[in-house]
Amino acid sequence: MNEDSPKGSVPSGSSYRPYYSYAPEMKSEKNVSEQMPPASSAPEAPPAAAQRPAPRPAAASRDTPVSRPAPRPAPPKPEKKSNKGIWTVIAVVLVLAALVSVVYIAAEGTSGVGSGSKIAVIHVNGYMYTGDYMYGSGYAGSDSIASHIRAAADNNSVKAIVLRIDSPGGTAACAQEINIEIQRAQEMGIPVVTSMGDQAASAAYYVASQTDYIYASPSTMTGSIGVIGTHVDNSTLYEENGINITIIKSGEFKDMGTDTRELTSAEKAYWQYIIDTSFKTFVTDVASGRSMTYEQVLALADGRVYLGEDALKNGLIDDFGNLYDAADKAAELAGISSYTLYYPDTVTLSSLLF
Questions:
Q1: Per the UniProt entry, what are the Gene Ontology biological process annotations, in alphabetical order (predicted)?
Q2: Terminus of the chain with fewer CB atoms < 10 Å: N or C?
Q3: What does the pLDDT read at residue 107?
Q4: What average pLDDT score do residues 8-37 get?
């Protein structure tokens, strides 16, 4: 109740107002005139209808039949809601799932690909990082790519693999994880061919160099054999904004990647060691994959990108061609005359359901 409401009030609608009880019963007109105070001080009498209550009906005798109102009919019982519609929807979904399963198994086989010779086309598209990234997300994840390569190599219907690469590069670890699966497929007798798109640079070229044959276009940008690391020093920015940072560490180099200060000379030397070691591994693996000497690759490994024409002259690729040229070459290396292309990483209804 609102604290501002007067005491003794009662609700009327959505607000409160005082309730007045003033209706004295009058015996006779004489008594009324005698009992009423002088007119100068008496309040105006209410209307006659308001002075006397309505007469009560005469009490019925015991012999007089009393009419009683007819009993109120019982309310109808609420109808139970039918679940027929829900079960119909569930049944339709189950039937569709069963049909998709039948079509999926009939078209692709229990292991993912149907009968006949297949060439799996696996995309390396976007920035390369370790992890699981769906094709089309803008990132190439080593988990998903390695999984597709492994599944294709383990499938008896797949006779060869084509890597369709369009990537500016990424981390060395990502490339190395993918290269493990490339080598495994090759050891199982499954040739792996690269088809380069707009670009296949740095870590993307690292992957391509480990395949059996490389196709590119004259305008494809590739190469960029090298390793880079960056460090950002924001200490001045923090100081200007009054931000004080305290670092508590267990060892001298534990915070060498922080942006709160510049690198010490010892830290720069250690970072350089990391870069040099990774670079040496990169050059060594490219030389092995491309059947070149370490010195030949080192001469090309100043970090620059090469157009397809220059890459062909320098032995970084094998020929000009598109995806279908790469598939034909893969079929040739696999010793098959006919095939169909199989795209395990393309998003389809079956890939979403299973």
A1: proteolysis
A2: N
A3: 43
A4: 41
